[in-house]
Amino acid sequence: xxxxxxxxxxxxxxxxxxxxxxxxxxxxxxxxxxxxxxxxxxxxxxxxxxxxxxxxxxxxxxxxxxxxxxxxxxxxxxxxxxxxxxxxxxxxxxxxxxxxxxxxxxxxxxxxxxxxxxxxxxxxxxxxxxxxxxxxxxxxxxxxxxxxxxxxxxxxxxxxxxxxxxxxxxxxxxxxxxxxxxxxxxxxxxxxxxxxxxxxxxxxxxxxxxxxxxxxxxxxxxxxxxx
Length: 227
Hints:
Strand content: under 5%
Number of domains: 1
Radius of gyration: 18 Å
Order of helices and strands: HHHHHHHHHHH
Shape: globular
Largest sheet: none
Number of strands: 0
Helix content: 55-70%
Number of helices: 11
CATH topology: Heme Oxygenase, Chain A
Mean pLDDT: 97
Distance between the termini: 47 Å
CATH class: Mainly Alpha
């Protein structure tokens, strides 16, 4: 079997070399260097919220298409449950309701948030996943979103707190995900090992991750609409 750990290191290197990771988005650079204005942060928050508020449906779709693997289904179910209720972390709210705390700082009410239109070209929906593609798609999602998002949230939390004075309550979504997503690396390594069981599995995973990461980076950068 191929060396999956070496593959993942090379995958991460290629993502950064090609500036395809969500960690390469201009918004992160702008707030860390104090180049973004406060009103621009508000614009970013609105677009990011609108683009990602139904993202948990992607996880739900993986659950619906999951193979007969009780441990995998439990992990996916727990992820959806936490996103919808915050019942595992103890926050006790849907994660996107937690993000509303940041929107409140800009005078954006829940009613206004509900009317925001997503700029994303595709919305999460129930979609069949072929059995041979399941672990490829799940791993690509992990390496494009879940794994780098832990570092993204840690850095955004620090920058918005230290450089702009946002409160811990307003930044709870970021501190929460910096912690929750940090433990997902090994989980997706495990899924990648499933991919490696197929002769062309890792090649397909590389292609899919590069493709998905480019789209994710756009969303995490607020589609450039905060400038």
